[in-house]
Amino acid sequence: MTTLTQLTEDMKTAMKARDKATLTTVRMLKSAIQNEQIKVGHDLDEAEELTVISREMKQRKDSLAEFKAANRDDLVQQLSGEIEVVSKYMPKQMSNEEIKAVVATTINEVGATDKSDFGKVMGALMPKVKGKADGKVVNETVKALLD
């Protein structure tokens, strides 16, 4: 079952349950995927759908940090609910130890020795962890291991 099909089913379920918060978030996700399909001109495969959902998750997390800094508790609560719904469509996230292991393996594979090889490592690493790890955490781990 594709993510788009799952979103449609979850949207129907949320409508029947009169769960407005979930319904709104699912509609936003479905809309984002459909807009991406229109933009690229073909049905999205799983990786492309994951990219769209990851982008939506990142936007919500960034907004959450900004709202917390501005003491907007009403918006923080709403976004926390949205993040919870979006996370249902994300793959299981890697732990810090798993990220560190993948980073170390990739550093060895590309033969990186210092910070000047950062781009080479990130280029080889990101396809391996796409959607499964936060890019900021991966970035920090690579920098720490290249020191």
Automatic annotation (TrEMBL):
<dbReference type="Pfam" id="PF09424">
    <property type="entry name" value="YqeY"/>
</dbReference>
<protein>
    <submittedName>
        <fullName>GatB/YqeY domain-containing protein</fullName>
    </submittedName>
</protein>
<dbReference type="InterPro" id="IPR019004">
    <property type="entry name" value="YqeY/Aim41"/>
</dbReference>
<dbReference type="InterPro" id="IPR003789">
    <property type="entry name" value="Asn/Gln_tRNA_amidoTrase-B-like"/>
</dbReference>
<dbReference type="InterPro" id="IPR023168">
    <property type="entry name" value="GatB_Yqey_C_2"/>
</dbReference>
<dbReference type="InterPro" id="IPR042184">
    <property type="entry name" value="YqeY/Aim41_N"/>
</dbReference>
